[in-house]
Amino acid sequence: MNYLTKFLLAFLIASCSFFENFQNSNKSLLEGNYINKSKFNLSSINNYRRWENDEGQVYLIDNGKVFRTYGLDNNFEILNFKSFDFNDLLITPLINKNYLIKFSNPSTTYIDIKYSYRIINYDDTKLHGEIDFIVEEKYNIPLIRWVGKNYYWVKGNKVIRSQQKLTPFSKPVHIYTSKK
Fold it and tell me: pTM surpassing 0.70?
């Protein structure tokens, strides 16, 4: 065998081994509640869920939307947040909501935040059966000129997965619950 053939053979064996390890590591993530691949314990309080991990990070979530955090570098709170039935978007294609939000780092008072919600993917996803639709949430805080988008994967009017940017200068968090 020439060197090129040996190299390609070694590369293929290493690739198969890596892929097998990648698949096995994802199998351990199949059941549970996760934020960015970190497992969280879940408890219910009133109409929302409290997600907490061993490091003391806490996310308060109502119908998939994080509305308050504790234990992060920059915590936030959306005052008087009320979730709504995402199926309402099937009747009213655009829903707007206004709230007040404050951050801990740097510390702010409550400032205006504006949200708009719409379904961005309905027909394509319904065919696959895994989700009913995807909701896009646009947000805007005019005072600090922070705008962006979050996404919610909905099945049976429950958010089964979301991608949310919680604070300025932070990376989006990926939240999902998975069961075998």
Answer: yes
Q: Which two tokens stand for residue 127?
A: 């065919």
Kindly state the DSSP code that residue 131 receives in the 8-state scheme: -
SS (H, E, C) 94-123: CEEEEEEEEEECCECCCEEEEEEEEEEECH
Residue 145 vs residues 16, 73, 84, 101, 139: alpha-carbon distances, Å: 47, 21, 26, 14, 10
Q: Is the peptide bond before 172 cis (omega within 30 degrees of 0)?
A: no
Per-residue pLDDT reduced to its tens digit, 139-171: 999 999 999 999 999 998 889 999 999 999 999
CA distance linking residue 175 with residue 163, whole number of Å: 6
Q: Identify the DSSP state of 43.
A: E
